TrEMBL record:
Chain ranges passing through the membrane: none
Active site annotation, chain numbering: 93 (electrophile), 165 (proton acceptor)
Species name: Duganella qianjiadongensis
GO molecular function annotation: triose-phosphate isomerase activity
Name of the protein in question: Triosephosphate isomerase
Gene transcribed to yield this protein: tpiA
One Pfam short name: TIM
Enzyme Commission (EC) number: 5.3.1.1
Primary localization class, coarse: cytoplasm
Assembly and oligomerization: Homodimer.
Lineage: Bacteria, Pseudomonadati, Pseudomonadota, Betaproteobacteria, Burkholderiales
Binding site for substrate: 9-11, 171, 207, 228-229
HAMAP family linked: TIM_B (MF_00147_B)
Amino acid sequence: MSQKLIVGNWKMHGSRASVQSILAQLKAAQTSRHTLVVCPPYPYLAMCAAALEDSPIAVGAQDVAASTHGAQTGAVSAEMLADNGCRYVIVGHSERRLAHSESDAMIAEKIVRSLSVDLRPIVCIGESYPQRQAGLTETILFRQLGTLTQKLSPEQLSRVAIAYEPVWAIGSGKAAPKNDILHAHRCIRQYLNAYGSHSNTLLYGGSVNPQNAEELLSIAHVNGLLVGGASLNGEHLLCIANTCV
Ligand SMILES: O=C(CO)COP(=O)(O)O
């Protein structure tokens, strides 16, 4: 049995009251079989970090700025996240790539900033449905990874967790088929190995729930899960974090 990484991405959901109720559930459990990280919206980060200070559960952010400081209204730097108790940060989620036109180059910059303050980046990659239909999955994955290998040394890249999140599986209620996940993870692992980055944590994300977690975590090269909707329920998140594999 190996230790996996389970990351809950709460996206733009919640209130002080609902966050407090999830935190109470998580704290009551005290430990989980796998490493657990919750990524709340910015306004609840410090509150979650304070509440989870004495627990093994870590806190992450959902995005970070590509520069250190300056006249950038609405932006939050890696230094600010670390200063508020964050240890992880999601970078390049497909929802941000799409709605905020984030480029691969900008995402690589965000990773560099995060690594410089010891925040552990979780970079999301994955193809859209039309790209999958056109047989372009590998091309897209290699393009997204290619910018990272241009900007990061093998040592830097080895500290980045890579989440394969096929865009068409996110929020669909149906995780990607096992063979698709296996193939994508194999491609990602081979690409990273060829670059000299050997120890990456690889995650799968897209409609993960307590029912499919065991099967997903049993797929070769899957070292953890990035969980959206199901992570808003403390019990469900704990159940996923306690999956026997
Ligand atoms: O986007 C996701 C996690 O980052 C996946 O979301 P769902 O688990 O809701 O499909």
